[in-house]
Amino acid sequence: MSLTHVDANHHANMVDVSAKEITQRSATAEALVTVNDAVSAQFDGSDLISKKGPVFQTAILAGIMAAKQTSQLIPLCHPLPLDSVKVDITFADHTATIHCTARTTGKTGVEMEALTGASVAALTLHDMCKALDPAIVISQIRLLKKTGGKSDFLAQP
């Protein structure tokens, strides 16, 4: 097996998906954001409330917007017509867990869209809470699951 975005001469290239079948494709990514006591104290049971507004709701919108812009951010990604992007955030023990699920019907997967959505949601949470915690840690940005196309993937727990 070889890298898909590198040709025989070791030059970057966009993968040719013209011969692939159109299938339903889905991917879910996760990012963890760990905050201090001061930020945790702002949790009202459903969202973190900051001077900039509702943190989770803003991060959710940012994640959705980012997923839709993935091909403009990552050079070799195909622009995809996304059928759905959903971002969920839960909070417990000083950690926000962000899940981003992207879906499309097309010739290539949506892993990068899900990863981009989760990443930007995490960065938005950091931006909105950094006044109370400049040492926020974003970690474990990873693909959890993908379906559709040639193969499926499920991360090990």
UniProtKB/TrEMBL annotation:
Species classification: Bacteria, Pseudomonadati, Verrucomicrobiota, Verrucomicrobiia, Verrucomicrobiales
Identification of the protein by name: Cyclic pyranopterin monophosphate synthase
Residue span, Molybdopterin cofactor biosynthesis C (MoaC) domain: 14-149
EC assignment: 4.6.1.17
Source organism: Haloferula luteola
GO MF annotations, alphabetized: cyclic pyranopterin monophosphate synthase activity; GTP 3',8'-cyclase activity
Signal peptide: none
Keyword field: Lyase, Molybdenum cofactor biosynthesis
Pathways per UniProt: Cofactor biosynthesis; molybdopterin biosynthesis
GO biological process, one term: Mo-molybdopterin cofactor biosynthetic process
